[in-house]
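for ur thesis appendix - GDNF family receptor alpha-2. copy paste whatever u need, i formatted it the way the template wanted (i think)
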Amino acid sequence: MILANVFCLLFFLDETLRSLASPSSLQGPELHGWRPPVDCVRANELCAAESNCSSRYRTLRQCLAGRDRNTMLANKECQAALEVLQESPLYDCRCKRGMKRELQCLQIYWSIHLGLTEGEEFYEASPYEPVTSRLSDIFRLASIFSGTGADPVASAKSNHCLDAAKACNLNDNCKKLRSSYISICNREISPAERCNRRKCHKALRQFFDRVPGEYTYRMLFCSCRDRACAERRRQTILPSCSYEDKEKPNCLDLRGVCRTDHLCRSRLADFHANCRASYQTLTSCPADNYQACLGSYAGMIGFDMTPNYVDSNPTGIVVSPWCSCRGSGNMEEECEKFLRDFTENPCLPHDQYHPRE
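the 3d part is after this line
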């Protein structure tokens, strides 16, 4: 009864906040200045069609070339260009994961926003449009992790990860793209090179970007009660090719490599935006949005920062990128903080999703 009342309250709050957040609910001066979001490719086209915006954008890109933020802002022409662009669609533009011309969209986004931050930020704003999901979606996804909603006896005997793989094989698109990345990631190049990691990563990105979450989430976050099941879950991304290496790099060095690539940088920023632990919410996820966090986690697979389960323990679950904090020197505290966002993040799959009977 208590749970039913809590759910009703949450549903009411969800609907209330949704109506308050809707642009149509704003009246009078509150509506002034509101602009519908535009993707950065379209925003660039709009800017190019307006001579003042176009010239200022070219100026800003020249200002950012090889200069730090303080040097750029000391230049009056650069300041003027920035002020004009802050009122243009370019400033608030965002991208969608998996969209056509995604890389171009992200390049446009970072061409402006990299120059607006003071040095290297620990958490960067996500260039992607926020993901919205109803509370019913969150509870439906939560049932995948915990195994709730099923008969306890049948659930204890079943292998949820095997069931997830079978469900994928019944969907043509899921089966095709899964077979593709398995084939590529298992293809040995030579005795010294076990696979082509670059091609493996690309095939994994295609799978997680093009297959609906109802299949990919079930495979990545399936509930396990024994090591055989947990090992199948760990092997989902073919970690010997996509994840593991001879040595573990330093996590901050790995982050630095990731941030040199617009796609990897964007996926990492999106992960932090949607999975950074929030202790002011019921679920410890930002805005209580599990779906956004799980999507962001899956979005990092196929990059240098690919995360995975560190072992096949069915209960003591830990996920992490392939890195450590050895050799961090005076940056060890920052490195440990970065790593904890994966290994001790309550918004990611951990023991609470796999209760012991």
